[in-house]
Amino acid sequence: MISPWDRWYSTSCCLCCHVRTGTIILGIWYMIINAVVLLILLSALYDPVQYRYHLTSSELGTDIDVMDDANICIATAISLLMILICGMATYGAYKQHAAWIIPFFCYQIFDFALNTLVAISVVVYPNTVQDYLQQLPGTFPYKEDIMSTNNMCLVFAVLLFIGCILSFKAYLIGCVWNCYRYVSGRGTTEVLVYVTTNDTTVLLPPYEEAVAISAKDPPPQYLEA
To answer: Which residue ranges traverse the bilayer (predicted)?
Structure first.
């Protein structure tokens, strides 16, 4: 009987490339995004007057500083951690080290769980969509037209959008998991040799390991009588 993990296992992703290539591209893409975010945050720390965003009194009746130095420092640390995790996944997929891919896979699971909680909160509390729209600035495009739409239609549109995102994220999780299985499988591949004389099975190490062992431990020399 084929297990569900083996049934969905595949060495290709996006219908054209290998799971190792897909994981490397995904890791590089995440590193680029987080590097751009990190540059913006560092620029905000260097010149806070230029990048700090203030809500005017005509919108909320008060002047609120959206991002202070503490929040920027926390976001900078998170961006650095994400660059490290994505770099580990890229290196692990390239050098075929399965353990280096695990942190990135755990991040994907955590991100998927957060988006699932957002979808559940929209279903349980549908009025949160309208509350979120009311918090948007008055200059937001088509704000009044969106707020005049039926609440159920808004909830359905938001759930459809989140569902598409979750489906895409689940596919990426499957690609990274298949890459982990492929890399870990290549690292622990063993060859089965069937001895037909006595119907027994002998488990031998890979050819490269057998050659290395034989080179380290040469057979003893025979002494002539």
So the answer is: 28-49, 70-94, 100-125, 152-172
